[in-house]
User: Which sequence fits this backbone?
């Protein structure tokens, strides 16, 4: 499977080679076959304010072309299911908004044809696929229908 990974921290823009533009500004190889890392640039690197009022920043974007899947992973430090911060009900509307106002426009700008988008929010940086029992993470999946994200419950 070919996977492309876009994330924070990397080489200068001149090292990008022929990779697409948009949120992608810098590139680095992660040492894993078929995975390329790119830093988020512009507004996403600085953060956006979601409908819940929380500021979120793009942690990374993982593209799985063969599966038709794009994973947009956001850092959302205001999350806390213990009641000290935002819980899932507080941020439920953020997923649809992030899908339709951040993920879809970015995919269209880059020419990426993905059938599904997964939006995740995490209160801290957790490496993709890793487990952190202290982390608060919420995930929602969407199918893509033109310029709309259709919620697909897990």
Assistant:
């Amino acid at each position: 499977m070919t996977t492309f990974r876009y994330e924070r921290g990397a080489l200068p823009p001149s090292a990008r080679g022929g990779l697409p533009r948009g949120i992608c500004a810098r590139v680095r190889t992660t040492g894993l076959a078929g995975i390329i890392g790119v830093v988020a640039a512009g507004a996403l690197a600085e953060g956006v304010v979601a409908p819940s009022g929380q500021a979120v920043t793009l942690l990374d974007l993982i593209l799985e072309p063969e599966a038709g899947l794009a994973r947009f992973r956001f850092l959302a430090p205001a999350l806390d299911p213990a009641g000290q911060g935002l819980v899932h009900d507080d941020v439920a509307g953020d997923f649809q908004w992030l899908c339709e106002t951040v993920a879809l426009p970015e995919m269209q700008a880059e020419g990426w044809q993905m059938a599904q988008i997964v939006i995740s929010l995490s209160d801290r940086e957790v490496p993709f696929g890793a487990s952190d029992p202290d982390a608060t993470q919420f995930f929602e999946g969407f199918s893509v229908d033109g310029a709309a994200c259709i919620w697909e419950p897990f």
